[in-house]
From TrEMBL:
One of its GO terms (biological process) is 'de novo' GDP-L-fucose biosynthetic process. Residues 4-245 form the NAD-dependent epimerase/dehydratase domain. Coiled coil: none annotated. Its EC number is 1.1.1.271. Pfam families: Epimerase. The keyword ATP-binding does not apply. One of its GO terms (molecular function) is isomerase activity. Pathway: Nucleotide-sugar biosynthesis; GDP-L-fucose biosynthesis via de novo pathway; GDP-L-fucose from GDP-alpha-D-mannose: step 2/2. This is GDP-L-fucose synthase. It comes from Fibroporia radiculosa.
Length: 325
């Protein structure tokens, strides 16, 4: 019997893993296997910044495996504003989860990092060997340093205690159940919500920054399958980048254009170049992933974006939108 505890199980990525586990054919590569019990928890079952609450969560579920997603997460503007909170909350969460996994002899932990952890100035494409080769971009300095430390901790737990702890490094993620809060969100959910408001109120749709930066986006349901693969088929401390190909970079303008199209928005659409662009690009290689997995069919960006927009419009009342305008 395996008990797989997914921390942050009610967020964008957690909900996608739950969806895939529940909808893929049982026993298939990404479907539920006999003898597996999956548990998806939110902060309501324990604030993982707190050692006692984390200990109680591990005592309650006695997980054999952990997919550790829980984190203080946010887009560029939230990261710029709350650097210390991002640093501190994430250090506490990660330390509590990893140490309780060690104490309770959890067989395996996969923690979720992000391509934000990589150095700002480094040769592209990013790959798994480059995490610690220089300072991260200043805009997400707190978050990036906290997340980098997980890789350091994983190595130390392995070297001192033989723990099977590893990490996954996704690029920018999007999909249903994302955080669509206006200022705190990542670019895709933030702009979907802004475009929705502009359409409803007949106001301009304003995109922050120049629209020139490039990002690689992965659809949450695709990422979910990659996590399930990593849980079952990968046993090494070194991280794996979970990403579409490095040729799949999309500019923020292309993202905004695709949202305008998917929402059938006909109003005024502008860029506010006085706002930050953040890191210009962070292209990551998925070579290691594909060579280990033997190939993977990613959902085309526009198809996944259309689906996400449709989900948001249909689920506006229950979506995480922050203050509704
Ligand atoms: P999300 O939608 O914001 O969900 C965050 C999850 O973490 C929620 O279930 C939340 O529970 C939980 N959580 C937050 N603080 C917690 C705490 N103190 N104690 C216990 N649980 C807590 O985030 P996401 O986008 O799914 O991100 C999942 C992982 O992917 C994170 O590790 C993130 O760093 C990483 N990642 C995300 C992206 C992206 O573009 N979204 C890109 C790369 C990596 P409550 O709802 O109860 O607070
Ligand atoms: P990042 O990849 O960590 O920088 O995170 P984001 O998902 O927040 O992407 C930020 C990029 O999108 C930057 O170039 C922003 O200037 C641009 N952007 C444009 N409009 C928005 C918006 O409404 N919200 C966010 N978060 N970013 C936006």
């Amino acid at each position: 019997m395996s008990v797989i505890l997914v921390t942050g199980g009610t967020g964008l990525v957690g909900k996608a893993i739950q969806h895939i586990i529940e909808t893929e054919p049982e026993g298939s590569r990404f479907g539920k296997k006999p003898g597996e019990q999956w548990i998806f928890v939110s902060s309501s079952e324990g604030d993982l910044r707190d050692p006692e609450q984390t200990k109680r969560l591990f005592e309650k579920y006695k997980p054999t495996h952990v997919i550790h997603l829980a984190a203080l997460v946010g887009g560029l503007f939230k990261n710029m504003k709350y650097k210390l909170t991002f640093l501190r909350d994430n250090i506490l969460i990660n330390d509590n989860v990893l140490h309780n996994a060690y104490l309770s002899q959890t067989k395996k932990v996969i923690s979720c990092l992000s391509t934000c952890v990589f150095p700002d100035k480094v040769t592209y494409p990013l790959d798994e060997t480059k995490i610690h080769l220089g300072l991260p971009h200043d805009s997400n300095f707190g978050y990036a340093h906290a997340k980098r430390m997980v890789d350091v901790q994983n190595h130390a737990y392995k070297d001192q205690f033989g723990c099977n702890f590893t990490s996954a490094i996704p690029t920018n993620v999007f999909g249903p159940h994302d955080n669509f809060d206006l200022e705190g969100a990542h670019v895709i959910p933030g702009l979907i919500h802004k475009c929705h408001i502009a359409k409803k109120n007949g106001t301009p749709f304003v995109v922050s920054g120049t629209g020139k930066p490039l990002r690689q986006f992965i659809y949450s349901n695709d990422l979910a399958k990659l996590f399930i693969w990593q849980l079952r088929e990968y046993d090494d401390v070194e991280p794996v980048i979970l990403s579409v190909g490095e040729g799949e970079e999309v500019s923020i303008k292309e993202v905004a254009d695709a949202i305008v199209k998917a929402m059938d928005f006909k109003g005024e659409y502008t860029f506010d170049a006085t706002r930050a662009d953040g890191q210009f690009r962070k292209p990551a290689s998925n070579k290691k992933l594909l060579s280990l997995m033997g190939g993977f069919q990613f959902t085309p960006f526009n198809e996944a974006l259309d689906f996400t927009v449709k989900w948001f419009v249909e689920n506006y009342d229950k979506a995480r939108t922050g203050v509704k305008a």
